[in-house]
Write the structure tokens for this entry.
Amino acid sequence: MLKSNKHPRRIFLGHATRLVIAGAITPLTRPALAALPQARSLELDHMHTGERLSVVFAVGDRYVDDGLRTLNHFLRDHYSGEVGSIDPQLFDLLFETRRELRCTQPFEVISGYRCAATNTRLRNTGGGGVARQSLHMEGRAIDIRIDGVPLADVRDAAMSLQAGGVGFYPRSKFVHLDTGKVRYW
């Protein structure tokens, strides 16, 4: 019999991680999935739909398909209900931003995915600030804040990652994050 220096729970979690990633075990309960080594999760509150979400979207270097589908639906265009495909790197950016801030509060989501019709309508009636070729339409942008965390701190944490665009909108009380070129405004 082979002996291992690993604790039995670690052996189990290692096997479970490989099986989850391979799709052989679905679905694990969220608490079990969150307990896996290197699990990355997000907690989100949507300001327009009133929905709340806590989801594991990746384990190690692999994304969890069920978590991505759940996030895509959660971040749908809240005007039209259309569900887009969100860039998983945006979830990584959110995860790393919150880790940089060393906070546990959920992100408050103001805007995620936007369909072209919504984007056009907001450009024409929303009072400005909506780009014609918005990365929201590509599922590569999100507007957020964190209750109790100064907006400038959220902006600075995201900028420190140098992983995409960061827009600062203190009057509207949100920070825009995207997976486009590194740039700040």
Summary: The radius of gyration is 18 Å.
